[in-house]
Amino acid sequence: xxxxxxPSASHQLIGLNATAKLGAGTTLFAEYARTEDVSGTDxxxxxxxxxxxxxxxxxxxxxxxxDDAFYNQSSIYAGGRTEVGGRFSRQLAEGxxxxxxxxxxxxxxxxxxxxxxxxxxxxxxxESVRAEFGLRYVKDNTPAGGLPTNGLVDRDxxxxxxxxxxxxxxxxxxSIFGEVEQDIRDADQRRLAVGGEYILSNRARVYGRxxxxxxxxxxxAPTGAGDKQVTVFGxxxxxxxxxxxxxxxxxxxxxxxxxxxxxIGLRNRFALAPGLxxxxxxxxxxxxxxxxxxSGNDALAVTGAVEWTRPxxxxxxxxxxxxxxxxxxxxxxxxGYARKLSRDWTLLGRTLWxxxxxxxxxxxxxxxxxVSWRETDRNRWNALARYEHRFERHTASPTQLATRxxxxxxxxxxxxxxxxxxxxxxxxxxxxSSNQANGTETNSTAQLFMGRxxxxxxxxxxxxxxxxxxxxxxxxxRRYGLGGELGLIVMKNLRVAGGYNVFGFTDKDLQSFGxxxxxxxxxxxxxxxxxxxxxxxxxxxxxxxGNKE
Length: 549
Known about the structure:
This protein has 549 residues and is an all-beta fold. The chain has a 30-stranded antiparallel β-sheet, with no helix packed on it. Helices cover 1% and strands 70% of the residues. It has a domain of 209 residues: TonB-dependent receptor, beta-barrel domain (Maltoporin, Chain A, Beta Barrel), CATH 2.40.170.
């Protein structure tokens, strides 16, 4: 679950994935994602993949679909896209493989589609020479000149391709390769590539690749005209134990403006003492431009983190991140602490603060302090009481007013399990908040009452009923929620639930206590106890398992 609480552009992403072993060497993967934004636009995306591996045969098939309204910047799949594809490799003889792949992509709401297939023979002649020969077929229709108003143009390509890789004698630790692909019906559509790598040591390598595409934007995208060059080269090294260095240059079209950039970085992990770990990282990204010119897009990122886990009764972690870029600066700080007070009581605390300075200065903070209790001997009752502090401030910009949001939340959560198959939960939260906009301050209060019952249908499946009430400004305004859910234990102590609220409400400062918005929802629950933090000796205290969420 990821949530961006920017008042003017709030966005939420919910994700779920599952893996199933269907037999020896066969695995099924499934993924589901849902995005929601401030305008009420919702979008869904699904992906399934089947993989098989056995002696002399590997295969993979997948299918992806996303709604038009699905929007996830970190995903390679845009909204309104359907894609199916697969790849296989079959050993024909010692050192000889038959390789094939196919793909079909469609954009929803339009006639845009692309399909293609590749079939090739790979042959390892000796320790030094490896060759590949094959055929590729592609057919697609794209807007003429890249403009949708120009209408669609059908294009296809039937190409022969070859690749030769040569590994130099072992003492040189070098390999080079060359690729060529030529359309047999259109001499202007081709692809050429050369590259190689040099092994500096067991922990480091230098690599590079330069590609020239004529009449293509990528191997499965004929354009009919135009040339493009793509260059990538860099260094990847683990020069010390728990330390990695990387440096990479990426370019398109012969280092043309913003299409070229250099990235260099370093990651370290130090064990200073038993139970004391320090993590650091450094990265700099700089687009390559003409001498004396500024790209306006340079960035430098530095992070540091400390974990202290040696004490038996308490654990702590802290992290600081800083990013400096031409487009704006960002700083992020977090701290967590857990302490075992007794057999039944644990103190928990965490805080997270984020400050960004781009077109508009934004500061956001979130802190929690609470105590948890569990009836260790009988394990029927458990409870959590906590205080939350939320802060968000936006300075004025040419398009937005200055705002400040502040909220204090007191909450209590209680679970009771009278019998093994049935659990009752009660939740209460009280909020006091203030909002400032353009010099005007508004104060409000709210209370949340929530009851929940869960009945186990089997050892992995359960049914739940949830009822909630939100009262605002005393008891003058009331809103109600009612829903049901189906839960599945996908692995030990991990529960996934899907439900539907027949009616409901929303309050941005009380969302962490459960989903109360009308409509369908997904929830992920993790059951744990103090042993998750490595606090105390659960064997010595006779604990039988966690019951907190």
